Amino acid sequence: MGFEGNERGEEKEGVMATDFFWSYTDEPHASRRRQILSQYPQIRQLFGPDPFAFLKIAAAVFLQLWTATFLYNASWLKILIISYFFGSFLNHNLFLAIHELSHNLAFSKPVYNRWLGIFANLPIGVPMSVTFQKYHLEHHRFQGVDGIDMDIPSLAEANAVTNVVSKSIWVTLQLFFYAFRPLFLKPKPPGLWEFINFTIQIALDVAMAYFWGWKSLGYLILSTFVGGGMHPMAGHFISEHYVFNPKQETYSYYGPLNLMTWHVGYHNEHHDFPRIPGNKLHKVKEIAPEYYDNFDSYKSWSQVIYMYIMDRTVGPYSRMKRKLSTKSE
């Protein structure tokens, strides 16, 4: 089974919710972090950058750019097929590398991580690395906080996506919602780093189209789009925080795709210890298993997508929200 853990403590009525789940306590990760560190202080030894992050990112960037140039004269059908079955994995890997870099897990100096994030952004085709970091760190600090955590769907999404068809469309386009939601609901003024990110990315896109043609650039864009929609890699968008059990708001995935996604599946562990790089998160579970073994978890992201679409009680409202507390400010 793709979903592991206890069944819901309530009977499903077959009707989709018309409001979010609401919590009246602080997000659970900060308190659990303190508990685990008090019991297992050796976990602090796992903190710090991944020394191989740069090499892994560089390999993915150059392989994807080379593939794009190789396809300059291919048919659009061939480009679409290669985008879905190959390029999507590389671009989603780079998206999650940017996630890793937003926590400064490649270098000790934040500015080096920012430059590497802009480099990792290149095959994705759309400038997003710098802006992503701004919103993602708020997602950690203010998890579920109404009006601040932009990882949570908007009311418009929740009210529109109510059945199998609309959920299928939403999943296919979820990368667009993920990218544009904060720009509409909580826009932040762009700064110098956004300008640098934008300029370098557009320069790469123009160069790709000029020297190798629109098909090469199209391959990169398609790889990003299909890899963020109805695709196994994109299952993590749903698995991480969509509530299938009202008593739990963060879920981990312990399947093979962790090897290609910077181990983002270890999501409870990641939120508990965002200063630990992905390649060491499994050690947190090994050191402190009693804190994680009783949580519901997944072994298949594809099955998570299927469950999300087919379960009539689950949809964009299936997220935990809370009001901003004075402790979070």
UniProtKB/TrEMBL annotation:
<dbReference type="Pfam" id="PF00487">
    <property type="entry name" value="FA_desaturase"/>
</dbReference>
<dbReference type="Pfam" id="PF08557">
    <property type="entry name" value="Lipid_DES"/>
</dbReference>
<dbReference type="InterPro" id="IPR011388">
    <property type="entry name" value="DES1/DES2"/>
</dbReference>
<comment type="similarity">
    <text>Belongs to the fatty acid desaturase type 1 family. DEGS subfamily.</text>
</comment>
<feature type="transmembrane region" description="Helical">
    <location>
        <begin position="160"/>
        <end position="180"/>
    </location>
</feature>
<feature type="transmembrane region" description="Helical">
    <location>
        <begin position="53"/>
        <end position="72"/>
    </location>
</feature>
<protein>
    <recommendedName>
        <fullName>Sphingolipid delta(4)-desaturase DES1-like</fullName>
        <ecNumber>1.14.19.17</ecNumber>
    </recommendedName>
</protein>
<feature type="transmembrane region" description="Helical">
    <location>
        <begin position="192"/>
        <end position="212"/>
    </location>
</feature>
<keyword id="KW-0472">Membrane</keyword>
<feature type="transmembrane region" description="Helical">
    <location>
        <begin position="79"/>
        <end position="98"/>
    </location>
</feature>
<dbReference type="InterPro" id="IPR013866">
    <property type="entry name" value="Sphingolipid_d4-desaturase_N"/>
</dbReference>
<comment type="function">
    <text>Sphingolipid-delta-4-desaturase required for the biosynthesis of delta-4-unsaturated sphingolipids and derivatives.</text>
</comment>
<keyword id="KW-0560">Oxidoreductase</keyword>
<feature type="domain" description="Sphingolipid delta4-desaturase N-terminal">
    <location>
        <begin position="15"/>
        <end position="53"/>
    </location>
</feature>
<keyword id="KW-0443">Lipid metabolism</keyword>
<dbReference type="InterPro" id="IPR005804">
    <property type="entry name" value="FA_desaturase_dom"/>
</dbReference>
<keyword id="KW-1133">Transmembrane helix</keyword>
<keyword id="KW-0812">Transmembrane</keyword>
<keyword id="KW-0256">Endoplasmic reticulum</keyword>
